[in-house]
């Protein structure tokens, strides 16, 4: 399936099966804002829990926090967001469409990367088993040229943005002859900076109202609570504070479904370390976070690191874990070595000391911070799009199956009486009543059993349990596995153990 078609299918499937809806759809929607339906909310909750377990439950030096979305406005002055949380935007004078200048350039480079991918596929077909991808990438003249061109463009863009040389960003767009994707026009305005924070007001009367921002990242709630948590939890460095919650950004280019939203959720962890040790911890967290992703089995080839040339105002090292979405490799998670920038800055703006007394060194210092930051919605899209597959079966028919990792699946098992009579629904409902303390379940007695299996496949349910006439005689049921479609006859009494084995977080966390 072409990538564009696959992406359309992902969006349509998410709606049809109650995962993701356009926000305020009956009013024609609100751009880049989405609602999660009955299955989406479960998948999202399970991803959040899997992250929380891996970060907080599995590490006794990491604790949680739930800071408010609204924060004192000076927070955002201290963090640098008021002055520097900008995106470079450019307007097309003919189409009147607004774009992110860096995204236009990145899309141009993505097309070069697509050409490399095409060459790889062609060569892989030509050479068969003898194909050595690494050697091909290093030696094929055309591919090397493409790669050098892409790297040079990204490097120049990174340097120009770093120096705030917006005229050069526009020059680059013109040199590459990048056109408005909608109309083909190359009639561009200058590149300007645009602050991404949403403003709001606190207070009853217009005169006394205080200007606030909706937080653009959850991290600052952790920084301002650093001493509260350290002191009340008697935490010793190195230690971490983890938080999940909503963040808001007035994105200029809001597209690609839930990849780039104006209201989204982050899962962030700030790890406080001794000054000078931050790069060691940065490497360690890069490795740990990749392992977390790989544990879910979405395919090692679908991940890569992208080390930043252009560093944010607070970082001395930064990398993205990129994932192969249906529209190409894009950032899924960021790992940033944020130095002591945030704590020092809050110390300066608040006039309150944010220091730690290190009993081993016998001295006070402002800790350095390594952050891991992942978008929950982006992770949802990674899991969902990767899991959605059309399979051709042995008999030539196709089935649509959502092969979600079982630990994340919204519904763990469907209980299906073979027919709606002869006492089978009663037995099925009793099985449900017993298992519902342990798992999220669904019950379905409508349509032929084959159609019901397909419905559960498309819904991502890992197990179907069918109650038939033999069940009445020997207390056994058929358990059908979503991915292999294999069917086993098992005792009702064994169901809990069989399902638990595959859906239990332990099974998955042990791989992290
Ligand atoms: N505290 C650091 C921070 O916020 P970021 O790279 O701006 O860093 C971290 O964001 C993660 O949040 C990204 O890797 C991405 O997964 C997610 N994210 C950022 N902007 C987003 C948006 N508009 N929509 C959905 N997810 C977003």
- What is the overall number of helices? 18
CATH architecture label name of the largest domain: 2-Layer Sandwich
CATH class of the largest domain: Alpha Beta
Secondary-structure-derived class: alpha+beta
* Fraction in beta strands: 15-25%
CATH superfamily of the largest domain: Bira Bifunctional Protein, Domain 2
Cα(first) to Cα(last) distance is 32 Å
Average pLDDT over all residues: 95
Q: What's the SSE blueprint?
A:
Elements: H1 3-16, E1 20-22, E2 34-36, H2 38-57, E3 62-64, H3 74-78, H4 81-84, E4 86-91, E5 98-100, H5 101-127, H6 133-139, H7 141-162, H8 166-175, E6 192-195, E7 199-202, E8 210-213, H9 219-224, H10 226-232, E9 239-248, E10 263-273, H11 278-295, E11 303-307, E12 317-325, E13 328-339, H12 341-350, E14 356-358, E15 363-365, E16 368-375, H13 376-387, E17 388-392, E18 398-402, E19 413-417, H14 424-435, E20 441-443, H15 449-459, E21 463-467, H16 469-474, E22 476-481, E23 487-491, H17 495-503, H18 505-509
Parallel strand pairs: 3-9, 19-20, 19-21
Antiparallel strand pairs: 1-2, 4-5, 4-6, 7-8, 9-10, 10-16, 11-12, 12-13, 13-16, 14-15, 17-18, 21-22, 22-23
Helix pairs in contact: 2-13, 5-7, 5-8, 7-8
Bound molecules: glycyl-adenosine-5'-phosphate.
Glycyl-adenosine-5'-phosphate binds at residues 217, 219, 249, 251, 260-261, 264, 266, 268, 331-334, 371, 373-375, 377-378.
Which descriptors would you attach to this protein?
single chain, 512 residues, alpha+beta, BirA Bifunctional Protein, domain 2, Herpes Virus-1, Rossmann fold, 3 domains, seven-stranded mixed beta sheet, five-stranded mixed beta sheet, 18 helices, 23 strands, 40% helix, globular, binds glycyl-adenosine-5'-phosphate
